[in-house]
Amino acid sequence: MKTQIATVGNRVDPYISMGRPCVENDKFWRWGDDNLFPAALALMSRRSATHRRIINDKADYISGKGFTYDPEEHLLGEFVASVNSNGESLRQVLNKLAFDKSLFGNAFLEVITDAERSFLSLFHQDASCCRVAKDDKHIVLHHDWSNFDVASSVTLPIYPLFEEQSDGTLRSMIHYKDYEPMFNHYGVPPYIAGMNVSAIAYKTDKWNISRLDNSFQLSGVMILDGGADDEFEVDRVARIAEQKFAGNPGQVMFVVRNSAEEDNSRFIPFASQSDGDWKQLHDQATSDIVVAHSWFRSLSGLDYSSGFNSERILHEYEIALNTVILAEQSELMEPILNVLRDVAGINSSSLQIINRPPTRSKPIYMKVWEARKADGLDYDPEDEKQQYYLAQITKYNITSID
User: Whole-structure pTM over 0.85, yes or no?
Assistant: First the structure.
């Protein structure tokens, strides 16, 4: 009996190659072996639900709920409300910077002024479009790094250097990057050790989706009795059968053989007892993602199914505030405060980010100085600005109160 075998199924790696194996250019340092590492990180963030949730939440917590500042500093107030010609507020730009830094370990901020320092604008630049120039003093911007050409690129100096552009403005770039040994030109995202588990979480999610799409049909061997003259015919029969019977996950092997007097076509399923193992693998990968981000489960929405524990949320928020959030806020805001002082001549010493926990921890009738005292922060009961009740600064911006 002549037997021919054709194998079909799902064996596609979700993390496909992002571009050419290598990009060489004397203008910039490659970001990853193929210069497309940011594209791979962005793709991974779109495919892992927990990974993306943590990045979103970290960006929101780091950018805070707005700003407080001295209401007498009118220029500072105008700047906080609108930092560029797009009408973006300082909080909106800060949120984009925090998102990029959480995702890529790098963030880029464009500073624009003129020779007279008559205005100041800040624009967030997508980190995936930026590369460090070979002289380490400039940033090269391009819209598509898989097809780079010098003519369509823009090169801007790294702050505090400014260079005049064709429109007469002076421009500079602030490059934020997370420190990592052996990486001199780009930062490395803090979750670098959790990249593999993010891929595992994605694949286990895809496994479950495939099982639903396939109505939980089993994988196995389909033996078909029937004649086949050549390999082309075998492949055609297998593809037709696949459309009707095969599915994901796993593979279905089709065995096409010359039929005898009776038809012995049958399907032999592969028995699988791995459902529990897959769930454990997914749960472990999810926990490892949280650990890799230096984040907390209750702030990632992972424990709500077991009950809303406000005490645990507040406790973990306080830890995150003092170990992650405040440090990131300081790193992102320090260059901005320097730009306000050195370029625009604005006194920004009173500018502070408003941080609020995800649940209310203090009564709204508590005064600001009492809340600062409870949090272990510096406080002054005689300070007029600390005499406001929390209800006032929760419902209104403190700077709007006369």
Answer: no
